[in-house]
Amino acid sequence: MMNHSTLHFRPATEVAPEAVRGLLRDTCYQGCDLNIMNLAGWSFHFGTELSLDAGRLVGRFRFAGRTAYMAAVTDGSWRETLDLIAADADRLGAPLLLTGVCRHVVPHIEAAHPGRFRFTPVRNLFDYVYRREDLATLAGKKLQPKRNHANRFARLYPGYVFAPMTAADAPDCLALAEQWAARHGAEADGASAGGERDAIRYVLSHWDRLGALGGTLRVDGRLVAFTYGGAVNGTTFDVCVEKADTDYDGAYAVINRDFARSLPEQFAFVNREEDLGIEGLRRAKLSYHPHVLLEKCAVTLLSSPEPCLT
């Protein structure tokens, strides 16, 4: 029987970050979509709202011109959660659409409502998940080109300094992000440049509240790269942003490696997010040989048209 209670949404920026992380800490959710920094930071672009009750997290946002949902359930209440989402979508007059649904969730949804849903893998939104040790050591023949890049950087700039990022680095990081956007074009990363700038500004302005971890790379005091992210669960860290001045050959390889080295030992895995279908970004992410290419699906009713989200 359907539960006739409703979901109560609040702007993602008003939800306590630790409440989201606490819900996911002991789960196997690894998707970047559920990192509170992405949920809150990109909320200005996607209008993200969250409903957070004991045992479940439901997000509602605008994606590809449609109302969409994401959900994480830790108490097994998938049938009730799906019914609540369906009721909310119906109230808004929107076709039911869930995105970012990882493969391990599919059997739970199918068991809750057998034969009701279509599961459509969206390759452009698959996450690249690496073993932290691989990124930190760059060991082995497969990663030798990355070692070579990092070693070249060290030879060219022997006095470079990697340091943990703090809120005090915000002005330099914002300036480098602006420089990167100007050089690579407004749509170089396949998303709204304005949306990314808003997300970066938000995270840097709420650094401690979000529990962010990051790193900076400086040469002669000049910031040449920065990166940051946050935990998805207890063993997976999500890298939200990584920017480098490409005039400094090897800066990307070094900031990636040194940041992985700096992460707490609890994080065995690093999610470096999706490639958005951008050819160069896909090559770059594959070149690090991911441990897992985390498949994510769009979920729609079989009675609805197949979604086009690529």
Task: Please outline what is shown here.
With 310 residues, this protein is an alpha+beta fold.
SSE diagram, text form:
Layout: E1 10-11, H1 17-24, H2 36-41, H3 43-46, E2 49-53, E3 56-63, E4 66-73, H4 78-92, E5 97-102, H5 106-112, E6 117-121, E7 127-131, H6 132-137, H7 144-156, E8 161-164, H8 170-184, H9 193-205, H10 207-210, E9 213-219, E10 222-231, E11 236-244, H11 251-262, E12 269-271, H12 279-286, E13 292-294, E14 296-301
Parallel strand pairs: 11-12
Antiparallel strand pairs: 1-2, 2-3, 3-4, 5-14, 6-14, 7-12, 7-13, 8-9, 9-10, 10-11
Can you tell me about this structure?
- By secondary structure, this protein is of the alpha+beta class.
- The chain contains 12 helices and 14 strands.
- It has helices at 17-24, 36-41, 43-46, 78-92, 106-112, 132-137, 144-156, 170-184, 193-205, 207-210, 251-262, 279-286; strands at residues 10-11, 49-53, 56-63, 66-73, 97-102, 117-121, 127-131, 161-164, 213-219, 222-231, 236-244, 269-271, 292-294, 296-301.
- The chain has a 7-stranded mixed β-sheet with strand order 8-9-10-11-12-7-13. Strands 1-2-3-4 form a 4-stranded antiparallel β-sheet, sandwiched between helices.
- β2 (49-53) and β3 form a beta hairpin.
- α7 crosses α11 (251-262) and α8 (170-184) runs antiparallel to α9 (193-205).
- The radius of gyration is 20 Å and the shape is globular.
Distance between the termini: 36 Å
Fraction of helical residues: 25-40%
Class based on secondary structure composition and strand pairing: alpha+beta
- Cα-atom Rg, whole angstroms? 20 Å
